[in-house]
Amino acid sequence: MEEEKKKILIVGAGVAGRELLGQIRKGLKSVYEIVGFADDDPKKLGKKIGGIKVLGAVNALPWIIRKNKVDEVFIAIPSGEGKTIRKVVDKCRKIRVNFKIIPRLLEIVEGKVKLQQVREVKVEDVLGRAILKSKQTVFKDGFRGKRILVTGAAGSIGSEICRQLVSFRPELVVALDWSENGLYDLELELGEKGAKIKYIVANASDYPKMAKTVSYYKPDVVFHAAAYKHVPLMQIFPEEAVRNNIFATEVVARVVKENKVKKFVLLSTDKAVDPTSVMGATKLIAEKIIRSHNGGATKFCAVRFGNVFGSVGSVVPTFKKQIARGGPLTVTDKRMVRFFMSIPEAVRLVLHASLLAKGGEIFVLDMGDQFKIDELARLMIRLAGFVPDKEIKIKYVGVRPGEKMSEELFSKKDKIAKTSVERIFKVKNGREKGISDHDLEALRAAVAEGKRKRVFGILKSFAPNLKNLESI
């Protein structure tokens, strides 16, 4: 007896939807029956796409699903905003029909859809934004044939920089990190793609090692992604934040300048704006270091952005683990909000900003709207198929050391200017106080002598709103 076909409704009758239809007809015609499309474009309503009718708008999903006895919904709107995806997901959940999605990937937006890319809906799908169609030629022209060094290459952002760079045919990517396990995993992943990468196990604060690496590989561009990022931990260990976020930045910047590298890009954070945390203060000082080094043969710039989905140790993976354990999800405060962006989008904008750099800029990425962490927790519980507060609880634990209720991407004193690239801005004026050799030497001495209070005092001179340290 022939197995009954699964009835599929495709939401989105655009390029991705049409490509998905074609892929199903090629490979899984015997498994799936496409009953129709749903699309909010009134011009498409009632028309046929590849012989399949557009049955109605998203608001009509419950009626369409019931009438056509749909088994599963495929969401094929990779250029859609998160709120649009959320609307589709909510309607599917209420009528208890399975749903999957084609993710926001540039190749999918451009119509290169593969059936294997259809997957479960993730939180970044319903919170993320429509992906911008960046012309690949811009990046290929900017990075083809170049030698590029990435510090912190095993981290969430650094590894994605490496992934994206290799597709633009650079002469060489040098991936540097102190984490041997992280570099090993990256090598396994990118080795399968035949990418030309050298992997270096090193600490970015090690001047002799960095000087030897830069002198030997002669990079054209350095992306400095190595940093400590966990706010509460750095409130306890300020000397480690100073070592990794300040001293390492100064070492890499000095080596880059000595070797006349063409461009240096510091990855910064929204927590560097009027910082209340040790981590934010160290990144603010890192920004000052690269601006003080700017000039001569090397163009220095920084790119500032907020939280990214799925980075190691961030809230999304934490919530996933807590859901898997059956809860509760720990939320600091109902009112706390944060910016969020997908890692691929953040990196694409970082790469684009690097190509704009003339020297001395602090670029700021448009992160969209801030989102309540409490709502994020509830959304993730619902996406996992549970009911918040009933099946999985939420526990409010209070604001952690050094945290703000909300973040800013620039201070009230900053003047922001548009660039030629959508979603990338630049700070026109720098802060008045720079970083002197005397300040750096004082920090080195305090760290070397283990004087935590002295370290804190120097940081506070740059960040007056800095919250007190936590005891070890």
UniProtKB/TrEMBL annotation:
Boundaries of every Polysaccharide biosynthesis protein CapD-like domain copy: 148-428
Highest rank taxon of the organism: Bacteria
Pfam families named among the record's database cross-references: CoA_binding_3 (PF13727), Polysacc_synt_2 (PF02719)
Family the UniProt entry places it in: Belongs to the polysaccharide synthase family.
Classification via PANTHER family: POLYSACCHARIDE BIOSYNTHESIS PROTEIN EPSC-RELATED (PTHR43318:SF1), UDP-N-ACETYLGLUCOSAMINE 4,6-DEHYDRATASE (PTHR43318)
Protein name: Polysaccharide biosynthesis protein CapD
Native source species: Candidatus Woesebacteria bacterium GW2011_GWB1_45_5
Taxonomic placement: Bacteria, Candidatus Woeseibacteriota
